[in-house]
Amino acid sequence: MNPRLLTGFVLSTLIAVCGCSESPIADSSVPPVVSIEDDDSEMNAAIAKAQETLSFFENNWKTMDSDGYSLKFAMPTSGGELEHIWFSPIKFEGDEITGECANDPEDIPNLKLGDVRTVTRNDVSDWMIIVGKKCYGGYTIRVLSEREPDVAPPLEFVDPPTN
Prior knowledge:
Layout: E1 3-7, H1 11-18, E2 33-37, H2 41-52, H3 54-60, E3 68-76, E4 82-93, E5 96-101, E6 116-120, E7 124-131, E8 134-137, H4 139-147, E9 156-158
Parallel strand pairs: 1-4, 8-9
Antiparallel strand pairs: 1-2, 3-4, 3-7, 4-5, 5-6, 7-8
């Protein structure tokens, strides 16, 4: 199985959400990219949960009193795998989502920090809205935080309210 790349587990999450220009974590041993196997059941369940709850993000990212928000898109690498990278949303239009790249990609051809891309809803692998120390969504971050608690972001993960 080909490993998927989840770009910037902790560093990218905090930088993208906080708008930081520097890493809030001084530990250079923390890898900016985490490889995940395609058949990773926990990660696949997290991505499915993010897609199932994407409507909460869509309905609230502009109106919720938040400290930050972001979407993670799965994008093809030069080797035909997928790299999952955080974007700042710009607009939702039908099945398409446009966002601005919030991280430096590891291996996505012709994509760099600040570039704008449009993808479909099926390309979303995670989303998050940060309110204080609470993170709505962040399903892939939850999985990685459980696996690497020493480098986990200082967030309380909460599920969106159900109606």
